Amino acid sequence: MSKNILIINASARIKNATSRKLTYVFEKRRKQVNPTDYFVHRDVAQYPIPHISEQWIESAFTSKKDRTKAQQESLKLSDILITELKRTDLVVLATPMYNWSIPSALKAYIDQILRMNETLKINPSTPKNPYKGLLKNKKAILILVRGGKGYSKGDFYEHMDFQTQYLKTVFNIIGIEDLKVITVNGLDISTKESKSAYNEAYKIVQNLAESFV
Ligand SMILES: Cc1cc2nc3c(=O)[nH]c(=O)nc-3n(C[C@H](O)[C@H](O)[C@H](O)COP(=O)(O)O)c2cc1C
After folding, report:
1. Phi and psi angles of residue 159, each rounded to the nearest 5 degrees, phi first
2. Using an 8 Å Cβ cutoff, are 184 and 201 in contact?
3. Element (DSSP H or E) covering residue 170
4. Nearest-angstrom CA–CA distance, 57 and 54
5. Pocket of ligand 1 contains residue 198 by CB under 6 Å
6. Which helix (H) or strand (E) covers residue 105, if one does?
7. Domains of the chain, with CATH numbers?
8. Which of the listed residues 13, 23, 95, 97 should we mutate to test ligand 1's pocket, taking the one with most ligand atoms within 8 A of CB?
9. What's the pTM value of the predicted model, to 2 decimals?
10. CA–CA distances in Å: residue 99 to residues 102, 160, 180, 210, 211
11. 52, 74, 126, 212: which has the fewest C-beta neighbours closer than 10 Å?
């Protein structure tokens, strides 16, 4: 069956970015195994998403029927990005770690797609578990690329990893709970470590492209 696949790239490097290479590997393999899939590309680094503004916030928290024309206009891009997500069966997001977190270009995208009554709801009567994701039947593959290493559970820099848990939380909150997370570590440590990390990720990405249903 044909699938709609949204590829999100976030590296500021356009040439030689490992994260970009891995989304390319996924797409290439996927096109061989399921040629009827439909791909959409969202490159938040090459085509930056504007930050949300005061008017954006006012509009997002005004009920749909009461929004002025100007308010509707300020949510136009957010509406486009959310529609794109709603049409997607699988999100393949590849991002570098920048300063122990995600690139600000990707954060700007996330701020546009987390929207009350569109991608999530809040139930104040269950304060310990208030969020309900509104996206249904979607999966995501997160390819998280780092120059350093030691970010795994129990490792020396575990406390510095503000990338993995943040992205998992964001996806879970909007209702995408079926996540595969691939971490690619030590890319800037040595050529040997970089090659070995890339080769391992390459195999995992190829397998995921073959097995996604
Ligand atoms: C601005 C910047 C900040 C970075 N911060 C970190 C960091 O906090 N931790 C880390 O392990 N690597 C860090 N790196 C290294 C990148 O994560 C690494 O080079 C990765 O390969 C970049 O992904 P790309 O090849 O897809 O561009 C940083 C790189 C840049 C350019």
Report:
1. -70, -10
2. yes
3. helix 164-173
4. 5
5. no
6. helix 104-113
7. 4-211 (3.40.50.360)
8. 97
9. 0.97
10. 8, 9, 23, 33, 33
11. 126
